[in-house]
Design goal:
By secondary structure, the chain is mainly alpha-helical. Helix content is 67%, strand content 0%. 1% of the residues are buried. The model has no long low-confidence stretch (mean pLDDT 83).
Amino acid sequence: MATEPEPRSIEQEIAELQGIVTQLEGEKLGLEESIQLFEKGVALSESARKRIEEAELKVEILSKRGGKVEPEPFAR
């Protein structure tokens, strides 16, 4: 039975994104490889942005409740 890989942390996504930026800036890559790396970087950036927005919303919800932790549905 195959197991699903554990989800990556935001820190891992950002580290991978930084690695892609370094590669694109410093290496002499072919056009196709550059495009593939760029596409992967855009996807990582979008994923990280969404996760950061979710975290900010959670903090805002907790702050409005005076730090009292109560479950609240995530509505967007």
